[in-house]
């Protein structure tokens, strides 16, 4: 029986869907999750093990043919996003698609046109914008606490790609370091600064022994004059610790963000060591409290929940949603311009 709820079909039942999308959908009172779609029975069963009742499909064709749904939520490998989003839009269904929504700007522009022609809601999952620390940073900027942002410097040291899901291992297909992970931090820069003006510098470092680009340094100038710098590494032979730091330098105050333990300091003048210590203690105690009270899993995925709730509200009530794909295009254009500087991401043309 058709209900007044937003009926959702989830396509792609891997870890991201299982840990983030499904809990967010199930916790939203406006949503009815009616179908799961994945070629892997094992992936589907891991979700159904939570006593979830859904019809099961092994292909998007079947789901769209047999289900009366309002939204297709796409959590498949990124190489499938464009074709699956287009198929759902052509069937008259709204689409929410994980990052990256497409692998080229041209594909994204095509989907935006199609969604607009059919008056459908096409949203992108750039969930880092919805993390507590980034919300606090954006609020400080909007309240003019930072003044004019002069420079943003992001440093991320993470584990090797081979600790992640196997479909990411082929970097010519996934473009992992830029399109799958660097995308988060570049989108934060766009979120604060708007569209970019020019790419000043890109240094990719490729490790032939593991057949992957493991280091990337990027310097970007944004139209508002801000200088953005990203240093990202996914090679444990080249660093000895995992961390994420975001430093934002403004004409009034600076903001220093650390992801683990989570902290944000907005300061001017000489750094006070006691204040730094207090922030560290607060961060550790905050995480510990969530662990001991059983709230850590929900906290870890809160950014997805906030984004998905916003998207559902957009579909249900036509409220404002800042990550309609049309509005997220500046991030994709920035990625595409950086990609031109990375030789191993380029498709070789062997024609005479």
Class based on secondary structure composition and strand pairing: alpha/beta
| Gyration radius, in Å | 21 Å
Helices and strands, in order, run as EHEHEHEHEHEHEHHEEEEEEHHHH
CATH topology of the largest domain: Dihydrodipicolinate Reductase, domain 2
Unreliable stretches covering 5 or more consecutive residues:
348-352
Q: Give helix % range.
A: 25-40%
| Name of the CATH class of the largest domain | Alpha Beta
Name the CATH superfamily classification of the largest domain.
Dihydrodipicolinate Reductase, domain 2
Average pLDDT value? 91
Instruction: Let me know the number of strands.
Output: 13
**Please, how many domains?**
2
Percent range for β-strand residues:
15-25%
CATH architecture descriptor name of the largest domain: 2-Layer Sandwich
Descriptive account of the structure:
The strands form two sheets. The protein has a seven-stranded mixed β-sheet. The chain is built from twelve helices and 13 strands. Strand 1 (6-11), helix 1 and strand 2 (31-37) form a beta-alpha-beta unit. It folds into two domains: 6-125, 3-Layer(aba) Sandwich (Rossmann fold); 129-302 and 335-345, Dihydrodipicolinate Reductase, domain 2, CATH 3.30.360. The protein is globular. The chain is α/β, with parallel strands linked by helices.
Q: Can you summarize this structure?
A:
This protein has 352 residues and is an alpha/beta fold. The chain folds into 2 domains: 120 residues, Rossmann fold (3-Layer(aba) Sandwich); 185 residues, Dihydrodipicolinate Reductase, domain 2 (2-Layer Sandwich). It has 12 helices and 13 strands.
